[in-house]
Amino acid sequence: MKLYALLDEESLKRHGWSLERFVRRASGLGAEILQYRNKSGDIEFTARRLEELVSSFPGRVIVNDYADLAVICGGVHLGQEDLACYGDTPREAVEKIRQAVGKGGWIGLSTHNETEINEANGLEIDYIGLGACRGTETKSDANVLGIERVSALAALSTHPVAAIGGVRLDDEIPNAAYRVVGSGLYED
After folding, report:
1. Is residue 62 a contact partner of residue 35, using CB atoms and an 8 Å limit?
2. I want to staple 86 with a disulfide (CB 3.0 to 4.6 A). Which of 67, 93, 170, 185 is the partner?
3. Nearest CA to 6 among 143, 154, 98, 110?
């Protein structure tokens, strides 16, 4: 199972880490993907951060929420609620997002249940995020499914699955291609 690092701007500040330190840690652990999430910053700050990450991280950089910034990096990850901002139907939204992301860019979509996975199976996306495996410090409202349930649901996806939410570095989650680790990366 491959490592997908989640860099949350608020967590970075809370732990007192620099962007460079986080990138070194994620790279040293073999992360292939790094998602940048900034829920409180403006778009210009986020764009600058993405440029820094693309120049320093050896793998694919994904931005959370900002499809218009995906051309700076390697793609975008969106939540279910974000799709409505781009189209009247999920298919229409993904088509519009695909144009913004560009030919080689990835689109990831968070899913939480069988219905959302089945809908995602019919969309032109590159992977799904599935969870939460455990509670997290960044999403207090996350619906915790547990690792066994995430594994069972992951088997239903036609897209590669990134297990999300409270995932630890040593977790093995059957049927998932990636384990998305955020806070666990701050533990040296």
Report:
1. yes
2. 93
3. 110
**What is the mean predicted confidence (pLDDT) over 144-163?**
97
Give the amino acid at 20: E
The CA distance from 5 to 64, in Å, is 12
Q: Is pLDDT of 89 > 70? A: yes
- What does the alpha-carbon distance between residue 176 and residue 174 come to, in Å, rounded to a whole number? 6
The Cα-based distances of 14 to 10, 11, 62, 137, 138 in angstroms read 6, 5, 22, 11, 11
Separation between Cα atoms, residue 85 and residue 131, nearest integer Å: 22
- Please state whether the predicted TM-score (pTM) of the whole model is above 0.70: yes
Contact 107, 78 (CB under 8 A): yes
Q: What letter does residue 82 receive in the DSSP assignment?
A: G
> How many helices and strands, by DSSP H and E, does the chain display?
6, 8
Residues 6+ apart with CB under 8 A from 42: none
What does DSSP assign to residue 138?
Answer: S
Q: How far apart are the first and last CA of the chain?
A: 21
Beta-carbon contacts of residue 133 (< 8 Å; ≥ 6 apart): 144, 145, 146, 147, 150, 163, 164, 165, 166, 167, 171, 173
Residue whose C-alpha is closest to residue 59's, from 38, 37, 28: 28
Mean pLDDT over each residue of the chain, to the nearest integer = 94
